[in-house]
Amino acid sequence: MAFRDPSGAPLEPRILVDNKDKATISEGDIRKLIRDARERRCPVGVIVARDENQLRQHDRERRWGQDEGVWILRTTRQWLPRDLEVLKPIFERMRTEGADFLQKNSALADEIRRTLVGLDEIEKELKKASKAVETASGLTVKYRTRLQALCDTTAAAKIASKSEHGGSIGAALRR
What we know:
Layout: E1 15-20, H1 27-39, E2 44-49, H2 57-61, E3 64-67, E4 70-76, H3 80-97, H4 101-104, H5 106-164, H6 168-174
């Protein structure tokens, strides 16, 4: 995989993507990605899990890092578009300054790692907020329905009561 210029020609850095659909990503999967990326001269390797639960805790805490000269992104199918967008400026710099520019700036590499973890935390909080909104909406419908039923019951009781007494206005006029 690679970003492309307007004519469609691939741009550096080339990116090797390994899509996994298994219970857990293992260290062996990471080693194989590194080996394959080195063989293909790709400075960036991406291991894509189906969902976050397939990533080990270590993978979630260190989603971006270098190993044996290959920059590895550990991500999910859902996170991949967002992660690539976030890393786009890094890839631009790799293109202009070479794939090793991050090796010269470890503070930037650490900031990228913190940024990805921070984005994951934000996403978790958004999911919680979304669930809270859904719950509140469901409760609103439930209580509205209960109140409507109470109103209908009360109205029916008043109508029945009025019928028994001949209607309150009619009964008052007849008296």
